[in-house]
Write a structure and sequence with these properties.
Distance between the termini: 19 Å
Mean pLDDT: 93
Number of helices: 4
Structural class: alpha/beta
Helix content: 25-40%
CATH topology: Rossmann fold
Low-confidence stretches: none
Shape: globular
Radius of gyration: 15 Å
Order of helices and strands: HEHEEHEEEHE
Strand content: 15-25%
Number of strands: 7
CATH architecture: 3-Layer(aba) Sandwich
Length: 173
């Protein structure tokens, strides 16, 4: 196991503090989690920031299924985005579990723009595994993990899987 529940908690606490520091507080800041595992991570970041700053950040979830560049080669599972706040002029922290090629983030950026025009978008990921195909770089990283391209990084979260863990499944792609 690469990360256990305690490691994930520590990484998210550190990211929360980095977000607060970089943005000089939380004014005009909101958090958006990419479905599926980015949303519970975003919720945890909102909770951690509230404990430090005493303020509740707007939190939303973003479905990117119809924005993917492999839409016509896969059968997308479409969920509903839930963004009940206006992002226009706000700084958005986009949250996902694993950053790999950058294609998911590109799709998320396209989807976000359909909901408003943020002043800035920052990217927070639990795991950055490298192998980028697009010029996308995270602003906040829980852990950089060197992997082989054919490996899988499997993130499990308590809210969805009953356990918090990150493991590398060797050579599964």
């Amino acid at each position: 196991m690469m990360l256990d529940a305690r490691d994930i908690q520590r990484a998210l606490a550190r990211i929360a503090h980095e977000i607060i520091e970089r943005n000089r507080g939380v004014t005009d800041l909101c958090m958006v989690g990419v479905l599926t595992r980015g949303y519970p991570l975003a919720k945890r970041l909102v909770d951690a920031i509230r404990k430090v700053e005493g303020k509740e950040l707007p939190l939303g979830s973003l479905d990117i299924a119809m924005y993917r560049d492999d839409l016509f080669t896969t059968q997308p599972v479409v969920r509903k985005s839930d963004l009940r706040f206006d992002m226009t002029g706000k700084r958005v922290v986009l949250v996902d579990d694993v950053l790999f090629t950058g294609r998911t983030v590109r799709a998320a950026l396209d989807a976000l723009m359909d909901f408003g025009r943020p002043a800035a978008i920052q990217l927070a990921v639990l795991i950055d595994r490298g192998h980028r195909e697009l010029p996308i770089r995270p602003d906040y990283v829980g852990k950089n993990v060197p992997t082989a391209r054919e490996d899988d990084v499997v993130v499990k979260l308590e809210e969805l899987d009953g356990v918090d863990s990150v493991v590398i499944a060797k050579g599964r792609r």
